[in-house]
Specification:
Blueprint lengths: L12 E2 L4 E2 L26 H7 L8 E5 L2 E5 L6 H11 L5 E9 L4 E9 L4 E6 L2 E6 L10 H8 L7 E4 L6 H9 L4 E6 L2 H13 L6 E5 L2 H4 L6 E6 L5 H11 E11 L3 H14 L3 E12 L4 E11 L1
Parallel strand pairs: 4-5, 9-10, 9-12, 10-11, 12-13
Antiparallel strand pairs: 1-2, 3-4, 5-6, 7-8, 13-15, 14-15
Amino acid sequence: MEKNLLLKNFRIKRDENYVYFPIKEKIKIEGCKTGEKEFEEFEIKNYNDILREKGIKVDSISIDFIGEIAIIKLKDYENVDDIANALIKTNKHVKTVCIDKGVKDDYRIRDIKIVAGEKNTETIHTEYGVKMKMDVSKVYFSPRLAEERMRIARQVGDKDVVIDMFAGIAPFDLIIAKYAKPEKIYAIDKNPYAIKYARENVIINKMEDIIEVKEGDAEKIIQKLPYANHIIMNLPHKSFYFLPYAMRRGKIIHYYEILEKNRIDDRIKDIKNLAEKENYEAEIKDVRIVGSYSPSKLKFGIDIEVKD
């Protein structure tokens, strides 16, 4: 595999004595023999190939793979069965396929419907070696923020204090605890299911000494916590409302918001004006697009340094 010599479109064979690997050319490997043998050829297809053969436009399909669950988002549901079956056929790790019908209730979780596979919405997702247990019908989780979570972890210094105001199942906190050396991380959420899984994830990953999970409203809990070096605000539809609470309790704020594409400059001005009203100065350290939300809206990440 390392030398790219394995012929992946031929089936590996075995008998009572040997396992036979089809290779492109002869190679010397200690403890192995090379020779000639006939192998059965098969066609390698991914779900895109299968769907294109059926005339289904793959560009209109959004898919998130979370553990053993695939979540698909579609503009129309005419071909949902074909899509679901193609995903299970071409991805051995996928046991359940759901459709995402949008977000619902105050916790803004996905409105999930199982369309193929096992009737199960609980899974364990692995990200950068960290195990994250969740029920995708009861908590919100996006695997697309994996790189963003690692980016934040790289900014956390030794003995830093971190507050995650809207932690969910604590993915930011778990990654930070594994790849940085913070003194303490406080993970806050008001969704009881998110709290349940966050606490399980802390135990699964043996991070009890670093991460403390707190259930309740962030604006109340944060006032009772120590001053933080980093505050994470991943509540993109309501983050601006909570920003004053973060400014009073932290130095670097990792702020996320969904905005119209042409609204980012106005929002930066709003943030600086808000800081002045709170008797602070807000320095914008970084602005980036971390995802798309709709044809007209993007999810922005803004790093804000709060100064007295």
